[in-house]
Design brief:
Elements lengths: L2 H11 L16 E7 L7 H11 L8 E6 L14 H13 L4 E6 L7 H7 L2 H4 L3 H4 E3 L5 E5 L6 E5 H5 L2 E5 L1 E5 L3 E3 L11 H4 L4 H5 L2 H11 L3 E12 L7 E11 L2 H11 L8 H4 L12 E5 L22
Parallel strand pairs: 1-12, 2-3, 2-7, 3-4, 7-10, 8-10
Antiparallel strand pairs: 1-11, 5-6, 8-9, 10-11
């Protein structure tokens, strides 16, 4: 059994993959909170608490895993979820009564995850950071049974034990997927110790397809998007900083990513992985209950590389 053959079918087979029928126009709306946050010096704890209330988030007693985007570090730009947002979320979920709050990431490129976290300022911003952080690439794994093809997938024990995964990406364009937001951020849940770097089985299966399959598998999620300063152009690593001044939150990751696209001046119906995600959540703006700011009124068009110019919303 090869790494290439192991993952894609097994993702489909996970018992947490709850298939739904094609969306019904009468399906409930999805709450998505768009909240102004002009800078990382803003009161991010209070902003996140407001968003949690607007989204009716209930976490009391749950084991919560915060999953930021910690992929590479360059002090001249803004690749990762800012540590100020992660530190604020850590405080918020503890205040909301979570049974436990952990932070975990499995970078696709860097193998020295703790060194990367130190470069990005996590040790300074979060007291006793190393006691709360889990390198998902090297965590112990459990084998999850299924019924398709290979019939199993290896999953981090920490991920498997989480009652709620909080996906916390940076708002960025992506040179292959068009955008990288809450749904693409789940790539970091896949253990590199089993599937290698940069998680090649996900790329072999097709990035858009893998995004959809992972989000079918991990359904107990909540999204917090760091759009205070995002990245435009040739993201997710080599783009340019883009100030958008917002945090975007919600339990429906499809609706959250669609809202972020609209904020970025991108038509979400032209993003391939969102086109394939109708059974997971609400893509249509009419089925999204905007909380806080109107995404169209606070939107900031993000620059796109030429091959993605067709994604621009009219």
């Amino acid at each position: 059994m090869t790494r290439r053959s192991l993952l894609p079918a097994a993702v489909l087979a996970h018992p947490a993959c709850r298939r739904q029928t094609v969306p019904d126009p009468a399906r409930p709306k999805s709450a998505v909170a768009v909240l102004k946050a002009p800078s990382y010096d803003s009161d991010l704890v209070e902003t996140l608490l407001t968003g949690a209330r607007l989204c009716n988030l209930e976490v009391r007693g749950k084991n919560v895993l915060l999953k930021p985007n910690l992929v590479e570090y360059d002090r001249q730009t803004c690749i990762n979820t800012d540590v100020c947002v992660v530190a604020a979320a850590f405080e918020v979920f503890r205040r909301l009564g979570a049974g436990s709050v952990r932070i975990g990431e499995g970078p696709e490129h860097r193998r020295d995850t703790m060194g990367l976290a130190e470069e990005a300022g996590y040790f300074k911003a979060i007291p006793n950071f190393e006691s709360y952080f889990v390198d998902l690439n090297r965590d112990d794994v459990v084998r999850v049974p299924g019924f398709l093809d290979n019939g199993l997938m290896y999953v981090s024990k920490t991920v498997h034990a989480a009652d709620l995964i909080v996906t916390m990406p940076k708002m960025k364009t992506h040179h292959w997927a068009g955008v990288t937001l809450s749904m693409k951020n789940l790539f970091g849940l896949v253990p590199g110790s089993v599937y290698g770097w940069p998680k090649n089985p996900l790329h072999y299966a097709g990035i858009d397809h893998s995004i959809v399959q992972l989000n079918r598998m991990f359904r107990q999620t909540f999204a917090i998007i760091d759009g205070i300063v995002g990245m435009e152009g040739n993201g997710p690593i080599q783009g340019s900083p883009k100030s958008a001044g917002v945090l975007v939150m919600g339990s429906d990751v499809v609706a959250v990513d669609a809202t972020c696209c609209r904020l970025m001046g991108i038509d979400p119906t032209k993003i391939e992985y969102l086109q394939q995600s109708a059974e997971i959540g609400n893509l249509n703006a009419a089925l999204i209950d905007d909380k806080g700011e109107n995404p169209f009124s606070v939107g900031q068009p993000f620059a796109l590389i030429p091959q993605f110019s067709h994604l621009r919303a009219l």
